[in-house]
Amino acid sequence: MNTISKNIKRFRQKKGWSQREVAEQLNISIPAFSKIENGITDINLKRLGQIATLLEASIMDLMATDGENPQSKHSMHVNMLKIKLAKKEEEVIDLQRRVIELYEEVKKKNKGN
């Protein structure tokens, strides 16, 4: 059983629902849902979103490995990307400044000729 399947089962049980109840709400057969929950059938993103909504969980919650807090991991990743973006923006500003300096330099040399 894979992580997503385990999490689906855990969230379903937390709600106190049977596989039948979930399958009916998803409009699929009980065996089809059982295969999803047992990791026998691969699940597409659309179906994962439907299950997440039904179970009042996020897709990230259903994909999280044991003991992992998906929200904090996501926030940490976003913060790292923000830092990288800020550094790149500084590099762009520095390059723009350098281009302006070179332009002024070329302009002065052309005036002298």
UniProtKB/TrEMBL annotation:
Gene3D superfamilies: lambda repressor-like DNA-binding domains (1.10.260.40)
GO MF: DNA binding
Alphabetized UniProt keyword annotations: Coiled coil, DNA-binding
Membrane-traversing stretches: none
Domain of life: Bacteria
Entries under InterPro entries matching the protein: Cro/C1-type_HTH, Lambda_DNA-bd_dom_sf
One Pfam family linked to the record: HTH_3
HTH cro/C1-type domain location: 8-62
Keyword DNA-binding: yes
Designated name of the protein: Helix-turn-helix domain protein
Classification lineage: Bacteria, Pseudomonadati, Bacteroidota, Sphingobacteriia, Sphingobacteriales
